[in-house]
Amino acid sequence: MKKLNLKLSSIQWFIVLWCVGFVGLAVIAGFSKLMLYFAY
Fold first, then answer.
1. Furthest-apart CA atoms within the chain: distance in Å
2. pTM value?
3. Which UniProt keywords apply (predicted)?
4. What single-letter DSSP state applies at residue 36?
5. Could you read off the pLDDT of 19-36 as tens digits, one per residue?
6. Considering only CA atoms, which of 26, 3, 23 is closest in space to residue 11?
7. Letter string b/e over residues 12-34, b meaning 16 or more CB atoms within 10 A of that residue's CB
Protein backbone atom coordinates (compact mmCIF):
# COMPACT_ATOMS: atom_id res chain seq x y z
CA MET A 1 0.00 0.00 0.00
CA LYS A 2 2.79 2.41 0.93
CA LYS A 3 4.68 1.60 -2.28
CA LEU A 4 1.54 2.20 -4.37
CA ASN A 5 0.99 5.53 -2.62
CA LEU A 6 4.59 6.56 -3.34
CA LYS A 7 4.15 5.63 -7.00
CA LEU A 8 0.93 7.67 -7.22
CA SER A 9 2.73 10.58 -5.57
CA SER A 10 5.55 10.52 -8.15
CA ILE A 11 2.99 10.35 -10.98
CA GLN A 12 1.16 13.33 -9.48
CA TRP A 13 4.47 15.22 -9.23
CA PHE A 14 5.18 14.43 -12.90
CA ILE A 15 1.75 15.77 -13.93
CA VAL A 16 2.14 18.90 -11.76
CA LEU A 17 5.62 19.65 -13.14
CA TRP A 18 4.39 19.08 -16.72
CA CYS A 19 1.46 21.47 -16.18
CA VAL A 20 3.72 24.10 -14.59
CA GLY A 21 6.16 23.84 -17.51
CA PHE A 22 3.34 24.10 -20.06
CA VAL A 23 1.80 27.13 -18.34
CA GLY A 24 5.26 28.71 -18.03
CA LEU A 25 5.86 28.34 -21.77
CA ALA A 26 2.41 29.75 -22.54
CA VAL A 27 3.05 32.78 -20.29
CA ILE A 28 6.48 33.39 -21.88
CA ALA A 29 5.00 33.12 -25.39
CA GLY A 30 2.14 35.47 -24.50
CA PHE A 31 4.53 37.95 -22.91
CA SER A 32 6.77 37.88 -26.02
CA LYS A 33 3.79 38.58 -28.28
CA LEU A 34 2.72 41.42 -26.00
CA MET A 35 6.21 42.95 -26.14
CA LEU A 36 6.25 42.68 -29.95
CA TYR A 37 2.78 44.26 -30.06
CA PHE A 38 3.95 47.26 -28.00
CA ALA A 39 7.27 47.50 -29.85
CA TYR A 40 5.63 48.14 -33.21
1. 59
2. 0.56
3. Membrane, Transmembrane, Transmembrane helix
4. H
5. 999 999 999 999 999 999
6. 3
7. eeeeeeeeeeeeeeeeeeeeeee
